Amino acid sequence: MQKTFTVENPTGIHARPARKIVEAAKAFAGDVFLEKAGNRFSAKSLVKVLSAGAKQGDSVSVVAEGDGAEAAIDAIGAVLVSQESH
Asked: Which pLDDT score, from 0 to 100, does residue 66 have?
């Protein structure tokens, strides 16, 4: 299952939102990835999420498979579209 979101945070995905993404991904038993510009990054690794370099206006796809995949995608998507910078 895959869904694409647009990063709304004016400062992009920096440490705090990246940590929220990792926490949401780790709550899910299966694999969860972020895809940006054809590259795939593990959503369970803070370093990998930060290395995606997602900036405001970027399209980022969240990919997850298995039980609870939709909930994991929605939780991560909520962080991606949040405008909170803290």
From this structure: 87
Phi, psi of 34 (to 5 degrees): -105, 140
Q: Say which residues have a Cβ less than 8 Å from residue 38's Cβ, sequence separation at least 6.
A: none
Q: Which of 85, 19, 26 is nearest to 55 (CA)?
A: 85
Longest dimension (CA), the chain: 33
Cα angle, residue 21 at apex, residues 73 and 47 outer, rounded to 5°:
130
Q: Active-site residues: which are they?
A: 14
**CA–CA gap between residue 61 and residue 77 (Å, rounded):** 9
pTM of the full structure: 0.94
In the sheet where 59-64 sits, what is the strand order? Answer: 2-6, 59-64, 32-36, 39-42
